[in-house]
């Protein structure tokens, strides 16, 4: 709860607003390998990661493609499924034993309606997500695999220690074997 509280304080919520928002979240523990959201099902909740590491992935013809990872202070949601109430195109799995704070879609919508600063907060989160998606897409289209790996080393070095190699390879859009070659060249 401390991380969620600190996140709300940093986001500009006043004390009574923090209490209102925090009261809508429920603590949940997930064990390594458990799913937060499953591809093909509607995502009707949003999670805030207090502790742990998560993999966003989809299954394409039997191949698991990792699209994103999330750790402490990140949010877990299959965004289009949550917003449009349609089946999720991805699954979200705990890569480690984890603690998250979960809010239902219904409570989330109610906060947006009842608490104007929460609506502002929500728009800010969406803008951040849009920027992340755009940056990721741009990098995949314009950077070489070596440049993408170097960028990950520079900007998110913790991922190289925490995320298994085959997931990193998928995020970078290469095979694990190609990633091993890249790592050998860059070291």
TrEMBL record:
It comes from Spirosoma montaniterrae. This is Cyclic nucleotide-binding protein. Residues 9-111 form the Cyclic nucleotide-binding domain. The lineage of its organism: Bacteria, Pseudomonadati, Bacteroidota, Cytophagia, Cytophagales. Pfam families: cNMP_binding.
């Amino acid at each position: 709860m401390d991380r969620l509280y600190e996140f709300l304080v940093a986001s500009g919520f006043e004390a009574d607003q923090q209490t209102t928002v925090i009261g809508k979240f429920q603590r949940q523990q997930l064990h390594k390998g458990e799913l937060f959201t499953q591809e093909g099902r509607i995502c009707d909740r949003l999670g805030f990661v207090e502790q742990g590491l998560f993999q966003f992935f989809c299954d394409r013809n039997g191949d698991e493609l990792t699209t994103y990872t999330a750790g402490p202070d990140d949010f877990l949601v299959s965004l289009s499924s949550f917003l449009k109430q349609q089946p999720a195109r991805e699954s979200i799995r705990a890569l480690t034993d984890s603690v998250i704070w979960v809010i239902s879609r219904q409570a989330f919508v109610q906060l947006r309606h009842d608490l104007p600063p929460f609506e502002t907060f929500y728009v800010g989160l969406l803008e951040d997500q849009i920027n992340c998606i755009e940056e990721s897409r741009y990098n995949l289209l314009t950077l070489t695999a070596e440049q993408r790996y170097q960028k990950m080393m520079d900007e998110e070095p913790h991922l190289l220690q925490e995320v298994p190699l085959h997931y990193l390879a998928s995020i970078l859009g290469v095979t694990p074997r190609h990633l091993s070659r890249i790592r050998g060249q860059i070291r």
